[in-house]
Amino acid sequence: MSKLENIKGVIFDLDGVICFTDQYHFLAWKEIADKEGIEFNEAINERLRGVSRAESLEIILEKATREYSAEEKTALMEQKNNIYKEHLKDMLPTDLSKEVKDTLDELRARGLKLAIGSSSKNTEFILERIGLDGFFDKISDGKNIINSKPDPEVFLKAADMIELKPEECLVIEDAEAGIHAAVSGGFHNAGIGSASKYAKTENAIASFRDILELV
Ligand code: BG6
Ligand code: MG
Fold first, then answer.
1. Burial level of 193, CB count in 10 A (0-12/13-18/19+)?
2. Contact present, 22 and 45 (Cβ < 8 Å)
3. What is this structure's pTM?
4. Active-site residue 151, yes or no?
5. What is the atom index within ligand 1 of the atom nearest the CA of 15?
6. What's the pLDDT at 1?
7. Which residues of the chain have pLDDT under 50?
8. Which residue, of 7, 25, 114, 173, is most buried by count of CB atoms within 10 Å of its CB?
9. Is 137 a catalytic residue?
10. Nearest 5 degrees, angle CA 174-CA 17-CA 100?
11. Atom of ligand 1 nearest to the CA of 14
């Protein structure tokens, strides 16, 4: 891995990059799917990575045996989020790994601007749970976008907030939708976890600390 030229900021996806909420998303959607008698498993859950709550529900409803009205969908999303937020209460600052915290501190010490670019509307709540509230320079999340990843909107807004051009930012992602969003927005990207294997991943990283070799 070699250093990228002229990187002035890093934009982090949240779920699956800074912290690990997959299990909680899975448990909450599973409870909803079971209640509705809809098949749901880990493979379907994998497709929810990086996509919005509403689009996640649409993916789950592909296995439903009847149509759902807009009102029913809204109610299901609310129920799912309530269950999910109950699980999030189990998250503690000790759930933030030392590697992630040390790497973030080192990036900050190097003078890079640091932002979040997440589809989640629970971003602020999660950051509070893991003790990172107030840490990032700016937060672009599910609350300030119309189009979810793979649309680049969340990253373009993050770059705008930290007053950098896309090509001056490195996006860190674990989802294919997020890597596509970074590429179509003109950002450099590094893929971690599942995203280390995607065709459009520019820099596959095995570990969070590897970001330090890229900037
Ligand atoms: C993304 C997750 O970060 O946020 C997705 O990877 C999730 O799985 C999306 O659907 C929206 O999250 P929330 O917290 O707004 O329901
Ligand atoms: Mg993610």
1. middle
2. yes
3. 0.96
4. no
5. 3
6. 80
7. none
8. 173
9. no
10. 145
11. 3
